[in-house]
Amino acid sequence: MSPAFGAMEVEHYSKGVLLEPFVHQVGGHSCVLRFNDTTICKPLIQREHQFYETLPTEMRKFTPQYEGVVSVNFEEDEDGNLCLIAYPLSGDHDNLENLDNSDCEPKSKLLRWTNKKAMLLENEKISKEWVRQHRKEEKMKSHKLEEEFEWLKKSEVLYYTVEKKGNVSSQFKHHNPWSMKCHQQQLQRMKENAKHRNQYKFILLENLTSRYEVPCVLDLKMGTRQHGDDASEEKKANQIRKCQQSTSAVIGVRVCGMQVYQAGTGQLMFMNKYHGRKLSVQGFKEALYQFFHNGKYLRRELFESVIKKLTELKSVLEKQESYRFYSSSLLIIYDGKERQEVAVDSDPEDLEDLSEESSDESAGAYAYKPTASTVDVRMIDFAHTTCKYYGEDSVVHEGQDTGYVFGLQNLIDIIKEIRDESSE
């Protein structure tokens, strides 16, 4: 049994776990799914799996926690809807060395996601009313998917209004256009390969957004080179072109995706990788500024923590011999739902009249003071990572990944510029 299943609550399922869309994915093309509140999963790629299993100790605080491997099955109902279930690995006959997910290449056809009662596990006890209500909600939402995809094709920066009622984080579902795009493509790939294969292996990883009520996520593609050593000539040329036409070649980093909560308007702002590729160095700096701005004011209290973590990561990577993190991304995450604490010298009677709008800069620090929010900095996506310790790679690199380190230093410098300019 995978380590994850031994530690997680699966009382609703005697054999497996129903996978759901992970709505905070802002970049990449591999489908990320929600296993439970604290764990996500993605298609297992042998090289990435090897990276997590041989990860240097000093790098572990800068990567998601690895939680094991599961087997994922899917079926299609008469309406063409798919449901994915994760099961523990069935035994010694599962050979990860021979696993190949290369048939999962992106396609574009739209496919709806739903839960089908017949696909839930045999012993699951779930009320008919819940199923009926759920299916009704899914049908109401499904007609919007075609429209969502059209928006995604035409717009690279999108704004969605978050409903005021209820928990803000609960309103994220079905809003993020990039995660929806990845989900639909993954399901379609699996459907098209169903005749040859109905079982996949997925890797389980820590859900880095689980601690935040409203996760603001920045996905940065790091390094001056993106193609792996095993890339075809066509792939290599394509990746080189993308780097040369973006900020990757100039500063070693580019925006791959962004999700920011705008407190002033109650909207979510999404920026995808296509927009990120077009940015100049100045445009990249402005995008960073936008990521740290909540629509009311700049979240200055986040800068020092981000700079400290990036500097520490840079120091760690400078000591890593032979590693190359081609096409890897760096995530910066913080909570858009800023928690306010009352200053000691505030008058309780005066506070009764303070509205939500009074928490901006014009209200003054004497009334409300932003608490220091937790900021996370993590490396993700290691499908093209290489190291001399892997053994089987024909190309062996020496020394540090200078392209990645170069990008980190420039990222640190630009954030410092934003910090200093905002305090003048």
Q: Which keywords apply here?
A:
single chain; 424 residues; alpha+beta; D-amino Acid Aminotransferase, Chain A, domain 1; seven-stranded antiparallel β-sheet; six-stranded antiparallel β-sheet; 12 helices; disordered N terminus
Proportion of strand residues: 15-25%
Class based on secondary structure composition and strand pairing: alpha+beta
Number of helices: 12
Q: Unreliable runs, pLDDT <50, ≥5 residues?
A: 1-14, 92-132, 139-143, 341-371
Q: Taking Cα atoms only, what radius of gyration do you get, to the nearest Å?
A: 22 Å
* CATH level-4 homologous superfamily of the domain at 211-338 and 371-423: Inositol polyphosphate kinase
Quick synopsis:
Among the domains are: 14-91 and 177-207, no CATH class; 211-338 and 371-423, 2-Layer Sandwich (D-amino Acid Aminotransferase, Chain A, domain 1), CATH 3.30.470. The protein has twelve helices and 17 strands.
Task: Present the secondary structure layout.
Blueprint: H1 3-7, E1 17-18, E2 20-21, E3 33-36, E4 39-43, H2 46-53, E5 66-76, E6 82-87, H3 128-142, H4 145-154, E7 157-161, H5 177-192, E8 199-206, E9 215-222, H6 233-244, H7 248-251, E10 253-262, E11 267-272, H8 273-278, H9 281-291, H10 303-318, E12 324-326, E13 329-335, E14 340-342, H11 348-351, E15 368-370, E16 376-380, E17 384-386, H12 402-422
Helix pairs in contact: 10-12
Enzyme class: transferase
InterPro entries: IPK, IPK_sf
Keywords: ATP-binding, Kinase, Nucleotide-binding, Transferase
